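Render this sequence as a predicted structure.
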Amino acid sequence: MEFIKLSEVPEAIKEFYFEEEIGGVVTLSNHPAGEHKDIRDIERVVALGKGNTQRVIEMFAPMVDRGSQWRWYQSYLIYLNSKEEWYNRSQEFVSEEGSEFQEVEPLAPVRPLSLSVEQTLAPYFGTLRAAKLKSARVTTSLGNDYDANELAISRLGMARLALEGQVDEYELMWSLASDDTGVMTTVTYKDLKEAHLLAATQMSTNWSK
């Protein structure tokens, strides 16, 4: 169904249109659909389980909402066409021996609720937290990046226990999160203790969220 003026557009979908003057002529146009995503795009990101999953979903969430609203708008146009055709058939119907036009009038599609980022994230809370815990890192005051997942915390704890009684300046080799596979970096016992405390605190915070 085509509209010439904004006043002709049904109230339900008026927000998808605007009027602009081009060469002295007022023209009715659609607001740009903008980039939009489908909920399946979010599900694919979640399935990958990477550490940046939540950040990506937060970026995708407005696009998913925009996409659902745009698809509803398109389905509403289809509904309007179907209703017009139904009406025309009802007017052309010729009653025979008291029969009535029985074709059911098309129903308007229900508009989906507009979801906030938090509402979009809610169904994936457990998965997002697991991904965050698995990819967790901490940085000490010396700038060393340590893995801070459950396994890493356990290793830090065992190393700290084994080195108990050593001076803070005691040096050992440790594979940092920023190191390539098989590469070890010299760190101090003090730095390792700080990393263990930071990692355990971060883990506790993430579990409570």
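Summary. Residues 33-127 form one domain. The beta strands are 17-22, 25-30, 137-139, 145-147, 171-174, 185-188.
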